[in-house]
Design goal:
The protein contains no helices and 9 strands. It is mostly beta strands and about 100 residues long. It has one domain: Rieske Iron-sulfur Protein (3-layer Sandwich). The strands form 2 sheets. Strands 1-9-8-4-3-2 form a 6-stranded antiparallel beta sheet, with no helix packed on it. Strands 5-6-7 form a 3-stranded antiparallel beta sheet, with no helix packed on it. A hairpin with a 2-residue loop joins strand 8 and strand 9. Bound molecules: FE2/S2 (inorganic) cluster. The site of FE2/S2 (inorganic) cluster has 10 residues, from loops.
């Protein structure tokens, strides 16, 4: 498994999301409920960055049409999106959030 540094823990306060320029679509890195998640930063319904949406529990909501994506599975919990977004494993090391871009 290979880990890539995505950002600092301090860059992502609890309850927020940030965009990181990694992977084919960029990453939406989320800190919520005490954990870090990373998904492709591109709504599966249209070309909209999920990192600009609202974090709620273990979901992030697309601001354009309101589909929420489960950060653990990448699956939308409601329409209009029907396809999942890619989920990447995360871990922390020291002050950093790391992602596994192969996951
Ligand atoms: S663009 Fe995200 S739900 Fe439509």
């Amino acid at each position: 498994m290979s880990w890539t540094r995505a950002c600092k823990i301090a860059d992502v306060p609890e309850g927020t999301a940030v965009r990181v320029e990694l992977g084919p679509d960029g990453l939406c890195v989320v800190h919520t409920e005490g954990a870090f998640y990373a998904v492709a930063d591109n709504c599966s319904h249209a070309d909209v960055p999920l990192s600009e949406g609202e974090v709620e529990g273990t979901t992030v909501e697309c601001w354009l049409h309101g589909s929420q994506f489960d950060l653990r599975t990448g699956k939308p919990t409601g329409l209009p999106a029907t396809e999942p977004v890619t989920v990447y494993e995360t871990t922390t090391e020291g002050e950093d959030v790391l992602v596994n871009l192969e996951s």
